[in-house]
Amino acid sequence: MSLVALALVLGLAFCMERITYLTLSEINAKKLMKDIDQKVENGDVEGAKQLCRDTRGPVASICYQGLMHIDEKMDDIERSIYSYGSVQTAKLEKGTSWIKLFIAMAPSLGFLGTVIGMVMAFEQIQLAGDIGATIVASGMKVALITTIFGIMVALILQLFYSYILSKIERLTAQMEESAITLLDMITEYKLKNKQ
Taking the CB of residue 134, how many other CB atoms lie within 10 A of it? Predict the structure, then answer.
């Protein structure tokens, strides 16, 4: 039971850390892109960079990365943005493998408790030399409680994990949409400055 409880505590700690990080990473991406577009359209690239630096989250980081390379060729800018996007996605997913580990471990630890409970029941039968309901009951109780607790821990962590994945997907979609918008902005900026 203590190992299952430990899996719950550690799993929830990783879940809370991820949820906090992902919540702090969320911004109004559409508003940020609109503000960047206004600054770039007015030729204030440094102001757009400063806006990105002052805004938290992966969307602003990707935009800053693109604006840092605004004077380079479009292929290089695109490659830079998408490479940095991969880095930001990895940061969003950091620690989720530990949550998956605890989801898998909890039922296994519960089943281990089941086996231990069964061994205790058979040991009590052997010591008593008789099969009675009261003799078997305590070992069976341990077996069933650890199984139930292991499955409950896995279900609780699975709910948190699904919520975390939905937040990661939403942020990743925002990053991709913002990257495309930024590339369009930079293309427009370059065409405008050529003329």
Answer: 8
